[in-house]
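Record minuted for everyone:
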Amino acid sequence: MKTAYDVVILGGGPAGCATALALKQNGASSVLVVEAGNYEKVRVGESIPPDTRLLLEKLDVWDCFLEEQYERCLGSASSWGGDELGYNDFLFNPIGFGWHLDRRRFDKYLAKCVEAQGVDLLTYTRFTDYDLCEDASFNLSLFHEVEKKETSVKARFVVDATGSKALFARSMGGKRQIYDQLTCVYGFFETPFDSYFSKLTILEAVEYGWWYGARLPDGQLAIALTTDAGFFKQEKLQNWKYWLTHLSETVHISQRLAGCGFDKDSLLIVSVVACHMDKVIGDGWLAVGDAASTFDPISAQGIHKALTDSLKAAETIVSCLQGNFDKADDYRVHIANQYANYLKNRNYFYSLENRWPESSFWKNRQKKISLEFQYALQSLN
């Protein structure tokens, strides 16, 4: 590993790795990706839409993606705003179908692509602090979790891809504008050899939130409940027995799990903070992916957004390194526009469900929408 780089990317998830790939395409000579883990822990995010293919092609990793042989996603079915299932398939999509992912394998695949392009990758390493050098570069303090060793590296430009924690952006004075907080509880099922679970993702609204189901590679199913933290605590949903009881009361998803075996040790609890950083770019740094803005999981756009951000971020970074800072405002507007569009779509989607007018979950989601949208529009000025 070198002691100095043009760009150091903090975070080796989809946003960080894609930014590294895009930077190499744009001529960046030395790039380092710093990843806190080692791509072994379970990561959530199971499906990507068809137009993600266009982004993977731009990053020149499409052929490698196909070699991973992910499960096809043919569309979605949802019980939302009514008791019956409605269907939205990809049959007539000119790009084709989407894909069900094993996120752990997908993130590892992107990391391999990064290394193949000559990018240095540090795993089990986390960012702890920084110093600003006289030449306006950053001296980053890093800590290796396995070796228990501290080190430092110099960066002309820093990319914050640390997820919604936005560790570097916040250390630079950025503040998270939090609009909503949700709790997602994931469970995983094994399917018997002769079982059938649709290649469509399935979404089912309930009085206390919504359930989601999707196939994964290797015969697994991911089932998730999204709800308020208060309901999660009240119903003791950290206990798999109570979670499974609520799942059994769903109308559409439960009947599709006949014969499937639940892994009681698989329950995964994720706190989701829908937020927007008030500062996404500064002198010598920018935030990308969830470090810039985090969407409600109902959008199903996390990976797609990360890849989109990465292409814009790389263009901006290279321009700044060359002494042209005009792209900085373009990047700022890109993030703001993206968030405004997300809120508009979220507004519409949550407004469709009116079956439980007294439900705190649905009242909270619909009450906050108009204020969020107003803020996003103001941030464009």
Q: What stands out?
A: The first helix runs from residue 14 to 25.
